[in-house]
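[job 4471] stage=fold_predict status=RUNNING
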Amino acid sequence: MSLVPFPRPLLAGALVLASLGVAPAQAQSAPGYPAQPITIVVPQPAGGAADQFARPFGQALGKELGQSVIILNRPGANGNIAAANVARITPADGYTVFYGSVSTLAVNPHLYKDAGFDPFKDFQPITLTNQTPNVLVVGAQTPYRSVADVIAAAKAKPGALAFGSAGNGNTMHLVGLQFQSKAGIQLMHIPYKGGPAALNDVLAGQIPMMFHNLSAVLPFHHAGKVRVLAVADVKRSPLLPDVPTMAEAGLPGVESVAWSGMLVRAGTPPAIVDRLNAAMRKILDDPAFRKPLEAQGFEILSSTPDVFATRLKKDYDAMGAVIRAGNVHID
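[job 4471] inference complete, writing structure tokens
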């Protein structure tokens, strides 16, 4: 993989994890930080669900730290290009923050022979920020009104019913594999370069359905342009109380909750990690910040670095098992 450095210089340092489950009462001293703009690297295209969260978060972080925060969208290779640049090129100084996700950090290392980064050795977690369940969504022009309808159609013509995703190995793809396995059906997978492109084709009737983040499809569901048939979570969404979980629809075990969080390069000074954690958690715990995003389908999270690291390891292991079972790979 070819790595291209970011266009502005950044600095370097060392790191340590904060104590498990408890936010520091006061961040360690980080003299002079931040003394220049901070960049949040988003490894997804502009206009998608990641941007819906990252941009207001960046604005709030800039106000909290008294410094400009730039959002840099750098899509490509399921997020590997952005992750590899942050992990291997940019200095460990806290001026480049990576908006990582379960897909990039817990899935990609299992899919690629060389993803270009190691999620555990190259990154220092700061805090989890948000999560949203993947949902089964169908176009309004389709005849499908329930999960049972989709399964019946798939069984009638094995391999003919298509579903889109944000790309091979994306969580949207993997939950589709879970769905097929539990339902005993065969679908046609159509990978796209990002979730927005796949959703556009669902809206246009080019493909009948996909699994996608609730936050991305919610406004289209309310507008009657798509129908959400089930939520791939252990609980119903409070924003769609009438939509069943996959278990309630007859497919227990089909679960996919896409989380995201902020990380920096390993080696970032502990004082800067603490400063960022304190600032970010203050924002994430603020009802004024949370409520508009919760209305869009995001569940806002806030954590210590240790809690984030634990969840990453857990999902890294779980996603590896799904990928091996589905024989999914990207050459």
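[job 4471] summary: The domain at 133-249 is CATH 3.40.190.10 (D-Maltodextrin-Binding Protein; domain 2).
[job 4471] exit 0
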